Amino acid sequence: MILFDNMTTVAIYTTLVVILLLWYGALTNPFRIGGLFLKELATSRAYLLHFVALMAILFLNKIELMIENNMTSYTVDFTSFFQSIEGSFVSNLQHTFENEILTLVVSFVYVVVFQAMLIASIGIYTFQDKTKQMYYATCYAIMINYLVAIPFYFFFPVNEVWAHDPSVRFLMLDVFPNFETEYRALSGLNNCFPSLHTSISVTLAVLALRSGNKRWAWFCSICAAIVIFAIFYLGIHWLIDMLGGLLLGLFASTAGIYLSKAGLFLRSRSGKRRLAQLTYAQEDAK
User: Fold this and answer.
1) Which range marks the domain in which residue 221 is found?
2) What CA–CA distance (Å, rounded) separates 200 from 53?
3) What total number of domains does the chain contain?
4) What kind and span of H or E run contains 277?
């Protein structure tokens, strides 16, 4: 069964899922959250700068793919080394669980729910916390994920399992036949270690657990588990990719929370200092 015809279809599904997740995670009108998001962008310089930085790092990932395509003289490949360590783990898992309905479900989670979860997290944390601590933590954590992963993609290339092991099928093509022409530009064939799908889904789950929003924490944790299963089942990632992504996700989420708290503390001190200066100026004027 074909689920995705092109990226337009993916965008439509993602938009609908984001709306649903905003309602589920915040228990309010999703469009109210959208309005609050736009208001914060317009009125808070810190909020805007963090969002711009997040978009810039996502754009950097696309630039990385362009640069990598021009690195024709660098021909190192660690794929065979990975397979020599873990053998037929992915092949055995795929052959054990392969099912048409399961392929449909995990592909939808991998392509749509994964990115919708990131977008919804930003909206939910913007709505539920006046200090925006979890919003800033999410921005920092996602940026750390990419900043750590990109050097590996340049200098430690590992091909996807299906492209190396003939016993593994790329099941995504069963539901998204044009994946290689429509979606591949967002994900390099040899950008496997560490697995960003693993690291970002784990990052979002850890942040959700730390946010105090139990509904959102349960959802993100379950989705992270499905994503980890999906990267093997669909024939994309090696077990070592997942382990690297897991460690990166734990590190990025922890660092993101720390940086967010530090940033809020510094902005609070700066604000108090400006208030004190204003008070002294008013007293002098009297």
Assistant:
1) 7-279
2) 17
3) 1
4) helix 239-285
Does residue 34 have a pLDDT over 80? yes
CA distance 53 to 116: 19
213 closest CA partner among 120, 144, 141: 120
Q: Is the per-residue pLDDT at 278 higher than 50?
A: no
In a domain, 142, yes or no: yes
Among positive and negative, which fits the CA dihedral 178, 220, 20, 22?
negative
pLDDT in tens, 210-232: 999 999 999 999 999 999 999 99
Under 8 Å between Cβ of 68 and 155: no
DSSP code string of 111-146: IIIHHHHHHHHHHHHHHH-TT-HHHHHHHHHHHHHH
Q: How confident is the model at residue 102 (pLDDT cuts 50, 70, 90)?
A: very high
Residue 2 lies in a domain: no
